[in-house]
User: Fold this.
Amino acid sequence: MYFWERDFHIIYFFALGFDAWSRRITHGIRMGTDKNLRIGIYAIDITLLTLFILGFYKLVAIISPASLNGIDNVPWLLFTYLLSFSISAFLFPSITQSRFVKGEAILLRVITTCFMTLLFISLITLLSHPSSHFPRKFLLISIGLYMIFLFIERFCIRAYLLHLRSNKRNQKRVLLIGCDQTVSQLFSILNTPLYGYDIIGTFYDGECPYENLASKRIGSIGDIYGWLTKNSNVNEIYGHFPKDQHYIVNMISKFCDNHLIRFYYIPTIDVFKGNMAFRILEGVPVIARREEPLRNVKNQFIKRTFDIIFSALVLILIFPWMFIIVAIIIKIQSPGPIFFLQERTGLDGKIFKCIKFRSMKVNDDADKVQATADDPRKFPFGDFMRKANIDELPQFINVFVGDMSVVGPRPHMLRHTNEYSKLINRFMVRHFAKPGITGLAQVTGFRGETRYIDQMEGRVKKDIEYIENWTFLLDIKIIFQTVWNMFGKEKGNAY
Assistant:
């Protein structure tokens, strides 16, 4: 009886919280306050998770009590789930982090959040329970089902937001200043109803070749201040100004600061072609040659946390028994050490010892010559290990200690780094990220031996693409693709 009363109090507590947050989220949606909206959606997530876990626990207790495998502390179970989900939700924000998120992005974000939640729950459970009482089935099924519920919830919220915006609700009122290609492109983006922006009008001087800007012209740049004093119902202003009109920038900026309007300056960026990034260095604006998501501390934390958890699970669950099998076969087929340690180029050009299972006979060319299809240095099991990626399993030790990552550009021998850096433009850029056990290049056809220079150029291009476009979702996709290739026919040039 106490058990049900305790659950009733938990549900009642969250019901009160949900009622309070539901009023706040409704206000946030209608007024366009994204902060309240994010907090409200998080409250709904937590409430849904609480009710789901309690209900799922009750259902399992009735249908299959043995599956609980020693779980008898419901408050602790609930705390573990809520804490793990909260950390994951912080690392991977909900759909309100941006003004508009596509349906497939919501699905990927939900999958990532639930996957990270499962990792954190597993880690906490392993530390607090004996391994014999680890509730594998309960954890996997519960997170899998909650993933479905969470996706439905997020999709319903997205649909509701789109409905409101199509009816001129939950919109931000904006002004655009200037007649420039960049401003025109921004107009086209913001004018899409799905993003929730209401373009009040545009200001620019002279003739404008862009019809979208001309269709909503209110006046010249000199008319802005007078217009704003009479029409202050503006949320955001985006402006591009000629060099001789920078005094207007300061004037508008001061007005916005005093009237709760966010002001954004639009630079014309044509210094570099391709990907670029804008930075503030000690108050001085600078343009970076490329976007590097992994320079962000939050992204570094996400990637490193995943590396530690993933590598720890592999080293605990897979590596020990694989080591015994591999070590015995290596000793039978080829006298010598079990491991092969080779100096390779790592993050920022630093040298580290890359660990592999030895797949070749002991030879003097190991640090000089790449393996080929019919390389006589390979012994039979070593050839199999290389094709199946088994020889790279010890590199999870490199990942755990921080020399490598699960996903990243593959590290090269020092000799190859020295040679290719002189032959291939931007070759050294790939060392702006930690080297990985697998990478974007490896799952897109550039794995293994590189006989020709264009093959290495293709690999470098993919490595740089990975560095400039990193997301946690991309890492997960690469890992799944790597596993698929291991069991499929795609072997690349791995010899």
